[in-house]
Write a structure and sequence with these properties.
Blueprint (H helix, E strand, L loop, with lengths): L9 H18 L3 E4 L2 H8 L4 E7 L5 E6 L1 H7 L4 E4 L6 H7 L7 E4 L6 H10 L4 E4 L1 H9 L3 H24 L6 H14 L18 E5 H4 L33 E9 L2 E10 L5 H20 L6 H14 L16 E5 L6 E6 L11 E4 L2 E4 L3 E4 L2 E6 L2 E4 L8 E2 L1
Helix pairs in contact: 1-6, 7-8, 10-11
Length: about 400
């Protein structure tokens, strides 16, 4: 009845929970209540509506409002019970011989305020603390099981770039071209949903834009914006037709079994102007530098500063990751179940890189009125630097 072919193994869930319980000991937490969809899936193996209570020691309790039978089929958690609403959580804990926590960790970076107040009322004598950073740090370092899926997603991202060549034609509107490529990605098994953690952030497959419209800024924490199809969206492809001799930005995320691969390539109908070709080559140099220095132990902020120093020496500082004062102050971001995971290769970031962190590195130049050139690949941190996982040819594809 349910598709359980790709369930998260029990050993994988147990390892993740043990890591969180270790962090709970450091923060002196009696328990953690996981409610956000992505974190719930990560720690329980199901995204069915519910809450996962992880005690300081012992086995977790998964409380499901909808749908409990499916949750039992999908999750390797041993204790799964049905409740009607979060208001039943305290009684449910007691019924399962779990003491009321004196200190409780919540995902305060994403938890809606009204839900936070509700939890406060349910546990009036409990001190509530933030556990979001600890969760995100655990998720930042990928297991072998996760890496296997991410590598498969990267291969499919390469196939999307390969397939895009078939659909790029002069005069086709950006939005129509995007639809054709997205349909191709869906045929390859793209899950359709791309999850992001930052409040107010959302993305549909990615950004496909060409020429001047690609350089239109937007609200999104991204170097590229795009006109979009309306002011209600205000990002991504619009109705502008694809033209010759302009950079066509295909910046897509492939999503497979929850895990993401981020990937950007530049296409063009006919040759690009020489200045844009030179700018693109500069971004390949930035990528090469970062791949070499991004080793375990270096801080994410130091990687960013090294890239800024190099791009300044190349003469592109004013157009790097945006144009003008509103430039984005990062060159890459962690990626996994969400598009904006730790670490961020960004200004003033102190987090040190660790082996098996997965990073989407995206050096790009934005030229208002002309377009965007740059590259993005998904990498994994190794002792020798970044190992590139997306491998579609890196030179600009001239059609």
């Amino acid at each position: 009845m349910f598709n359980t072919q790709h369930n998260i193994p029990k050993s994988e869930l147990e390892s993740r929970i043990r890591k969180l319980q270790s962090d709970m000991a450091e923060k002196k937490l009696d328990g953690v209540l996981i409610m956000q969809n992505t974190d719930l899936y990560y720690f329980s193996g199901t995204a069915q509506q519910g809450q996962l209570y992880i005690p300081f020691e012992g086995k977790p309790l998964l409380m499901i409002q909808k749908e409990v039978d499916r949750a039992k089929a999908e999750s390797a958690i041993e204790n799964i019970v049905s409740i009607n609403s979060p208001g039943q959580i305290p009684d449910c804990l007691k019924q399962n011989k779990i003491d009321t926590p004196r200190t409780l960790g919540l995902e305060l970076d994403v938890l809606p305020t009204l839900l936070y107040f509700k939890i406060q009322k349910l546990f009036p004598a409990t001190e509530i603390l933030d556990i979001s950073d600890q969760i995100r740090l655990i998720r930042a370092v990928k297991s072998g099981w996760e890496m296997d899926i991410i590598e498969k997603a990267c291969l499919l991202a390469d196939q999307v770039a390969e397939g895009a060549q078939e659909f790029i034609k002069e005069g086709i509107p950006e939005i129509e071209l995007a639809g054709k490529i997205e349909a191709f990605a869906r045929k390859l098994g793209h899950q359709g949903i791309i999850r992001m953690r930052l409040w107010g952030s959302e993305l549909f497959y990615g950004h496909l834009m060409a020429g001047s419209s690609a350089a239109v800024p937007s609200y999104l924490s991204s170097p590229t914006g795009g006109t979009g199809v309306s002011t209600a969206i205000a990002q991504g492809p619009g109705h502008r037709p694809i033209q010759r001799h302009e950079p066509i930005l295909v910046d897509y995320v492939f999503a497979l079994r929850g895990y993401l691969a981020d990937h950007t390539r530049i296409f063009s109908l006919g040759e690009l102007p020489e200045d844009l070709m030179e700018a693109y080559d500069a971004m390949l140099k930035i990528q090469k530098l970062v791949k070499k220095i991004a080793v375990p132990g270096i801080s994410a902020g130091d990687v960013y500063e090294a890239a800024i120093e190099k791009v300044t020496a190349l003469g592109y500082a004013d157009n790097f990751m945006g144009a003008g004062e509103k430039r984005i102050r990062f060159i890459g971001h962690g990626i996994g179940l969400e598009l904006d995971e730790f670490p961020f290769l960004a200004k003033n970031q102190k987090l040190k890189l660790q082996e098996n962190m997965v990073i989407a590195l995206e050096p790009k130049l934005i030229f208002p009125g002309k377009g965007v050139v740059g590259i993005e690949n998904t990498h994994v941190v190794t002792e020798n630097g970044l190992k590139q996982l997306t491998r579609f040819k890196e030179e600009i594809t001239i059609l």
